[in-house]
Amino acid sequence: MATEKVQAIVIGAGAGGGIVACELSEAGIQTVLLERGVHQGFLDHDNDELTSQRTTVLGNAYGPDNERYRRVFEHANGRTEILLPNEGRYNNIAACVGGGTLSYGAMAWRFMPEDFKMKSTYGHIDGSTLEDWPISYEDLEPNYTRAEWEIGVSGNAEANPYSPSRSKPYPMPAFPYNLEGHIIDKHTRELGLNPFPIPMFRNSRPYNGRAACIHMRTCVGFACPTGAKGGSHNTVIPRALATGNCSLLTSCKVSRLILDQNNRVKGIEYFNAEDQPKTLLADVVVVSASATETARLLLNSKSNYFPNGAGNNYDWVGRNLQGHAYSGAFGLFEEEVYDDMGPGATIALCDYNHNNPGVIGGSMLANEFIRMPYLFTRVRPKGSARWGKAHKDFQKQYFKRHMGIKGPVQEIPAWEARVRIDPEVKDHWGIPVLRISGQRHPEDLKTGAFIARKAEEILHKCGAIQTWQTMPGMGVSGGQHQAGTCRMGNDLQTSVTNSYGRVHEIENLFIADGSLHVTNGGFNPALTIMALAFRVGEHIVNAWRGNGLGQKGI
After folding, report:
1. Band of the pLDDT at 2, cuts 50, 70, 90?
2. pTM for this prediction
3. What is the rounded distance in angstroms from the CA atom of residue 442 to the CA atom of residue 454?
4. How many distinct structural domains can be found in the chain?
């Protein structure tokens, strides 16, 4: 059988890949979208929090499965251990059509202008690889707007005095506060702060053929029963398929990019749903597999010119792994502060994202998503009972009388925070797995401590009778908000792609996921991943139209 040839391949049907596939197919480009997982939906799993994307104690409802996927974690002392996807240090993300957008919390944040120029704002940081982005907020603003309107965001930018300039308002009004939100709103204003409703990828009213949110308590970590939570699975991917120009292949694991002697990518090798090896050729390839798996694929794709992996002649692929150094506080209250209105998080403030004396960057602060009973057992003040009657009494007394305020602290990128290929361990298909190693920069913990103190002050003001802080340790980050491993830049010796996501020295290979982030902002990054995907997709389409089938270079 002859090897199949298409015009474009997109690897990964998550936030970025779904958008790029839609852009290309709607432009008339024959596209194949490959996803390692399968279609999932609300009816495929009950609301078992032990398999949700927040806990994964008994496995992963939305993949990947423990039987076929492994990773290696390298401790600071050099000791290594093999991890499965339901173990914390694995840094798992969903493997399904829609990726994390199927089950995420759906906060829809734009980064601030300062987030694109962290080095210019804060100067050189010893021990870091901190740099400015090669693009500005103004460059990405039109793409932010497209993502908000085409995926669907509810919010009120006018209520946020720190909101950057924007060309259009949100397409839907903001959600009302829940009980926690009203309490926080009142008391933070008394502190001189500026609370406002969280922008969400959730429909506050019917929008684009999808229903309005029903405020299900098990929103975060689960699929939406009404389709009100917007992601690539129920917006751009159906649009792509409707064109007739896009084919979606599920349960497909890409093992290698095929590079030719002219430093172009010719196509891919992959295993299909029956574990059969296949080859698919294309004029353009876009990798959108996540900051960990995208780096792994490039590192496993070697050639004579790229002996260390595609685009990795200067050793930047897999470096600068970032997530968020989540910090905040919890508090116990005498009265009930829980009203069962999902997803729980409704209110935020951006007073501490920048301009904090003595620290680098910061984060937004928001009330936490609803913690179901098992997750609540992991929210305990120091010294409280972990089992027995005292444990049960705490559950009963405080489940409706506790509140959390937290924020995703912007991390400082570091050279040794990385993923690379393990020399020995392979996965189910015989593909070398990635190894995670390194540590956070010390500044992350310093900023995290500042944010935790501010969260605790707010809880005290709100009337908490007991509070305690939560902060991460020095271990390597890159969990649910993983980013940075194929960062964009103008210099091929200090970055992996150009400002449009094209891999330096490989003119028809693009990246469209959190790998591109130079820094990761003090916000949930989903909207920025989507905005960059629109930017990458638009660029490919424009170049394609100017160069026929892309044979002259993109």
Report:
1. low
2. 0.97
3. 19
4. 1
- Are 260 and 310 in contact by the 8 Å Cβ rule? The answer is no
pLDDT surpassing 60 at residue 551: no
First-last CA distance in the chain: 30
Model pLDDT for residues 480-502, shown as the tens digit of each residue? 899 999 999 999 999 999 999 99
17 to each of 139, 225, 233, 269, 325, how far by Cα in Å? 21, 23, 11, 18, 26
Classify residue 552: in a domain, yes or no. no
How far is the C-alpha of 11 from the C-alpha of 419, rounded, in Å?
Answer: 19
Domain membership flag for residue 374: yes
Residue 549 has pLDDT above 70, yes or no: no
Asked if residues 165 and 551 have their Cβ atoms less than 8 Å apart, the reply is no
Domain residues for the domain of 216 are: 4-546
Nearest of 548, 549, 532 to residue 147 by alpha carbon: 532
Structural contact between residues 32 and 10, judged by C-beta atoms closer than 8 angstroms? yes
Q: How many other CB atoms are there within 10 angstroms of residue 344's CB atom?
A: 24
CATH of the domain at 367: 3.50.50.60
Q: 12: closest CA among 535, 514, 528?
A: 514
Q: Does residue 249 belong to any structural domain of this protein?
A: yes
Is the C-alpha dihedral spanning 441, 529, 540, 136 positive or negative?
negative
DSSP state of 271: E
Instruction: Calculate mean pLDDT across residues 548-554.
Output: 47
Residue 158 CA to residue 176 CA, distance in Å, equals 15
Q: Is residue 554 predicted with pLDDT exceeding 70?
A: no
Q: pLDDT, tens digit, for every residue of 12-33?
A: 999 999 999 999 999 999 999 9
Sign of CA dihedral 41, 35, 26, 103: positive
Q: Is residue 551 part of a domain?
A: no
Q: What is the pLDDT of residue 552?
A: 45
Sequence-distant (6+) residues with CB within 8 A of 499 are 134, 135, 139, 488, 489, 490
List CB contacts of 276: < 8 A, sequence separation 6 or more: none
Q: Which two tokens stand for residue 398?
A: 């405080």
